[in-house]
Amino acid sequence: MLLIAALGICCTVIVMSFVFYRLFCTQVFDDLRSCANIIQKAYEADPELFETEADFDTGLRITVIDSGGRVEWDSAAPAETMDSHADRPEVLQALEQGEGQTVRNSETLGKNRFYYALRMDDGRILRVSKEASGIEMIMLSAVQEIGLLILILLVVCGVLASLMTKRLVEPVEQMAEHLGNTGNVRIYKELQPFVQMIQTQHEDIIKNALLRQEFTANVSHELKTPLTSISGYAELMEMGLVSSQEDTVRFAHEIHQNANRLLTLINDTIQLSSLDAGQRDVVMEEVNLYEVMKRCESLLEINAVKHKVTLEMSGDETAVIYANKEMIEEIICNLCDNGIRYNKPGGSVWATVMRTPDDRISFAVKDTGIGIPQQDYDRIFERFYRVDKSRSKQTGGTGLGLAIVKHIALLHEAEIRVESEEGAGTEIQVIFKKRG
Ligand code: ADP
Question: pTM of the prediction?
Answer without folding.
Answer: 0.63
